[in-house]
Records
---
Amino acid sequence: MSIYYHLPGLFEFYDLYKAFLPLWRNHREFFYDWCEIGSIYGAPGDCIWGGGRVGFGDAEPKAVAALMEEFGISARLTFSNSLLRKEHLADTRCNELCSIFEKGGGVIVHSDLLLDYLIAKYPGFYFVSSTTKVLTDFEQFRAELNRDEFSYVVPDFRLNKQLDKLETLTLAQKQKVEFLCNECCWFGCYDRKNCYRNVSQKCLGEDCADHVCVSSTAQKGYRFSEAMKNPGFIGIEDIQNTYAPAGFHHFKIEGRSLGSAIVLEFLLYYMTKPEFQLKVREEIYLDSSLDLF
């Protein structure tokens, strides 16, 4: 049984992964033998095709690509802007990124306009249907899984525990499902699409007010301890005992907008054996080149 994690911060947490990945390769005894890194996803801060979260990554793209190639990890560009128009497709910066990452890489996409453009111009990519589509209706989700353009589909986290319906998927459909595990958003949120739309506007450089979260606990920010209480949370016991035996093997960890320290906690919780978590934490924290907060 292999479980594939899709990790946040391709550009945002380059320095963290530069320290973590050698540990991952050279000390596999520290980590669960049933898990693999399926991809690392993200986008630089200056990408108008970006979406999901307002990007802040500033790592040099060729250095990022070289790191992913060195460790044999698929790089995914998070180009999930929902508001793109035809004139945006010619953006030089985003096209340059596609040229750098096309070999073995993927793109997380929302816009069908962008999807069609990328399929035609960069046939080396595989494509992931973004969770920013907020697919909460199960039959719409099933239809998305049936689209040949997508290798993976990330449903809204509110579908994570609808196990009776998930069991009705075919094996081929199950192999395309990529669950968002650690969402901290209010489970009853009715404004998620507007939140993502606001991010898309900002990535395009449009003058718009900040989105006001409708959750009563929004002022607390992201806390992993709170995310674990979310009805949609998927923990490692869920993965091992429920999802993997049912034929699901892909799990996405969110965190692009957070700090390196909390992303490290995700790597420890989901991938690292308990008896080695302190060892891994020390190795990372003692790397003087890292700013973890």
Note: The two ends are 35 Å apart (CA to CA).
---
Amino acid sequence: MLPREAGDGPAVDPSTLDIVLWGVLPYVMVVVLVGGLIWRYKYDQFGWTTRSSQLYESRLLRIASPLFHFGLLAVIAGHFFGLVIPMAWTQAVGMSQEFYHFNALLVGGIAGVGTLGGILLLIYRRRTTGPVFMATTRNDKSMYVVLTAAIVFGLWTTLASVFEGEHGHNYRETVAPWFRSLFIFQPDITAMAVAPFSFHLHTLVGMALFVIWPFTRLVHAFTAPLHYLFRPYIVYRSRDHDRNRGRAAGSAAGRGAATPAAAAPGNRTTARRGWSAVGTPDRDTHNR
């Protein structure tokens, strides 16, 4: 493999550790991720859930959950834009590197802070709410540690770029080419090898997160609830509504006015306790 120039310094040859970390480990991560998802779906479909704790506490959850999830979506979009789209493409449409850098820091910083604030609130809620904490497994605790570390190290690389200014590292010349080269099975190991340690650490923690992903509650992110768009409607009635209908029917019967349902032979009175049947097209067609 050809060496890569690291700035104005000498040529950099990938070491054995670089080959393992940036040429082998990414594909091991993909195999574990895909294989874990297949295994989880085949043998643990009932466990494919977030194990929601909303019934135990909802006040903090209403704040923390949207903050974390919407922040995470913005973070994912930022990673896609920075790693997948080559720098030559943005320059071709007239976007200067300075303008891109400013927007990446602004949007990435806001998204990172929001995501970190959301996950910290979720952890605080889980630790201070008794029933939620009792429902927390060791698996959940490990997942929260790795997930929080990935967010913190990602935010660290973003804030470091702010203080370094124009002398900061341009990851679109190192990390991004390495990332894209993985998809054509020709990993540009030397590109990643010359990146700063902060990017190495963030990448390794990110890969660790994807390795444990299929075996944690994070697996729900791979579920698209498309069946909700096509399932029939469910109509709910309250007990008070049915009770009032029963009283009205009883009053009418006491005055000598029989309801159509009561007048029909073989039908029970509609003034009964509990839930009453709700007329739906399929039920009405079946009873005819």
Note: The first helix runs from residue 16 to 43.
---
Amino acid sequence: MSHVHSQPRLLHEQDDGLLVVQLNHSHHLNALDDILLAELGELWTEVRTNSEIRAVLLIGTGTEAFCVGMDHEPDADYQNRTATVCVDLGVPLVVAVNGLVRQEGFHMLSSAAAVVCATHVRFVDPPPGSPFSDVPDTVAALAAGLITAVVPLWHLRATAESMARSLATGNRLCSGVAL
């Protein structure tokens, strides 16, 4: 018996040049599976061809995890799947990290013009060669210049959205703030 997933794995809305994208797979800690990867691939193609989109904000659903990597199903082939999540969109990408980042979740951070993390964020099992390999927490990541800001969870989306809107209008001045 196969499990039918009735909700989309990816939510998105466009408003005044900003596309807000939410990973909507929180019951699996926003793990990437074939469905979510396909939806991301289609959406990223649209972003690159839609001149009305001037910036993208990416966030995970829930507060436990931004993305824990691949959702490995039996007999699934996940080789080279990270190409879907680590892309040049042609517009600035701001990532709002709302929880745990693990394995392939780091690839989305590497594509970002700005990364805003909630104070409780943890970095676990970065891929080999990742700049996050020696970074234990958000304070160290901010000091190393790997993320742009650290804010309380309640302020995460507003801060990231403000940065994304600023980048959408061509204002590239975003500074890191640790609270």
Note: Residues 157 and 174 are 15 Å apart (CA to CA).
---
Amino acid sequence: MQTAAAVTMVRDDAFFMRAWLRHYGNLLGRENCYVINHGRGEQVAELAQGCNVIGIPGDPHKNFDIKRWGLLNNLVGGLRRYYRHVIVGDVDELVVVDPDAGLNLREFLEEAAEGRVLTPLGLEVIHRVDLETDAIDETILGPRSHVRPAPHYSKPCIVSTPTKLSRGGHFAQERKIYTPDVLYLMHLKFCDFDNYAEAMDRRNAITQEVGGDIKEASIGRHWYSEARGEDRAVFDAFADLELVEGFDMRPLRRKMHRSFKPRGDTGYYQFDRPDHGTQYVLPDRFDGVI
């Protein structure tokens, strides 16, 4: 069997699509990358040449996320029969291995045990606009070096066993949690101020097309203009997060394990997802990883 495949669904997000393709395309090979092109966008199709591109209609419809994750779950379930591991997530979420491990992601997964769902620790890459003035070009980490813990993005996203993921991919129907010390899920939504504003404009427009309220549309609340806030204020507030010295993430993983429990009677399992209110500076060894 092939070692690993990566799966995402995207609509128009060229900035994140390029980052996703650089990362997984280089590590796994584009032939092992599966891109669901929502709306059959020409730019996405062009960028993803060499990948397995699945075009689907982009007509506005309700229950957006429910349908999306139904499709993703079924695709992951099928691909798992051909790959030892399947990585699934949004286009602005990238799994990375700490360079201190001496392995890249493909090499790590070649050695990883199967029959599990792996949950990387979620870190949100934040653009400290008061400190980081360089534009993002070929790499994101380097020009951006600040992260905040993001338990909401500690997702069970590397699948090598039959399972079902919840809407948004936040929870899995798995009784055990595996959080390798070297695995991180980097969430890139806030990695660049200018791109954030452009992406939010597009997402606000989509929710207006769909119509209805947040519950009816089943799209993440953050896609709605009323939940957006003032863009510059969002980024200015990152300076107020407590800066923690060092880069020891083991206590955060221990908290995930201690609080791991069934999510009511849904069949899913969860851990506590507190707002830590802290930030860290990534060690230099992460520069250029994505």
Note: The mean pLDDT is 92.
